[in-house]
Amino acid sequence: MASMATSRAAGRLDGIGTTVFAEMSALAVRTGALNLGQGFPDQDGPPAVIDAAIAAMRAGRNQYPPGHGTPELVAAVIAHQRRHYGLELEPAQVVITTGATEAIAGALLGLVDPGDEVVVLEPYYDSYVAMIQIAGGVRRSVTLRAPDFRLDVEELERAVGERTKLILLNSPHNPTGSVLTRAELEGVARVAIEHDLVVVTDEVYEHLVFDDNEHIPMATLPGMAERTLTISSSGKTFSFTGWKIGWASGPVDLVAAVEGAKNWLSFASGAPLQPAVAHALDREQDFPPQLCAELQAKRDLLCEGLGALDMDVRVPEGTYFATSDVRRYGWADGRDFCLALPERAGVVAIPSLVFYDDKEAGRHLVRWAFCKTEDVIREVVERLANADLASP
Ligand SMILES: Cc1ncc(COP(=O)(O)O)c(C=O)c1O
Fold this sequence. Notes:
By secondary structure, the chain is of the alpha/beta class. The chain has helices at residues 4-8, 20-31, 47-58, 71-85, 99-111, 126-134, 153-159, 182-194, 234-237, 252-262, 273-283, 287-308, 334-345, 359-362, 374-385, and strands spanning 34-35, 94-98, 117-122, 138-143, 164-170, 198-202, 228-233, 245-249, 312-314, 321-325, 347-348, 350-351, 365-369. The strands form three sheets. A seven-stranded mixed beta sheet has the order 2-8-7-6-5-3-4, with helices on both faces. Strands 9-10-13-12 form a four-stranded antiparallel beta sheet. The longest helix has 22 residues, at 287-308. The protein starts with a helix and ends in a 7-residue tail after the last helix. Pyridoxal-5'-phosphate binds at residues 39, 99-101, 125, 170, 174, 202, 204, 233, 235, 241, 244, 246.
């Protein structure tokens, strides 16, 4: 008998039932492996933000907040966009969501009609694929190719067709760690303007950018504020990934489309957490650069460690993730490598090919999350050094 879960599920969920993270995290638990699979930090964000959430609960902020968002958080997002990027927004140009995930869902459900095409970068964050499919859209992937994972704007333009509704960007980019350059963004902007497209840009790693790289919001490019919906979240910026407080901002009609869908998904999000995140944005401005500096040190620890083991590793420009090529150890397929790794080394990583339509472009790649403590990263490197990593 077919399992009830698969036999009764709607067709719109075909092929998007489980995530690789669940599979690999279960493997980590079963084998006691250190988990560099899933991208959540080992350490919580500022204690004062937790205190603000507790205070909000004690002050009775426990019932439905406005669906649009709590006024002080809306104001804090507006102030953040002005302070960092010089973007001027009205309250109607911001909606608070249940994480960036709901903003992505709201954008795709609110903007994409069945049959509309969505141009998306691959490797992709897996919720994009799921939500494009659930919205009835058709995805057109543009590959950021190893080893340097740059965007080929001509390839992006070739992916645009008659039915293209929007371009879904992500920078800083998960999983490659690329931060789109001004030239790349200008190329996307030119295509969007020429073809009259909306750009939805997922910027959840906006503050986690290393070295001399710079995060440039798409909405700051000439002519783009009026066609760009920007998505971000407190999860990565303040190390509260479990709070799921995110937001979308941009032109009133695009934000209204997100809100129109969000109204029927969650309606409202985390009442006492919203004032706490407002506190974080307004008063914990030292935290994100500090987190970024710590992450950069962890990136170096991991990448130098992997490099010393002669692993072919691409040092990321931002995010939580580094990517390595496993062919040097004789593996053709990153999934085989990742399935063997817990037994051989007591470590879990994610095969990048699950983030690609063009499987050959990602088959040899593995993603490592370094948003863990330095002790964990050191231990991972030591375990890898003591393991036999060669292909059978
Ligand atoms: C690119 C990207 N977008 C969105 C999210 C989800 O954000 P949130 O936890 O705020 O829903 C993640 C989380 O890993 C991500 O990597």
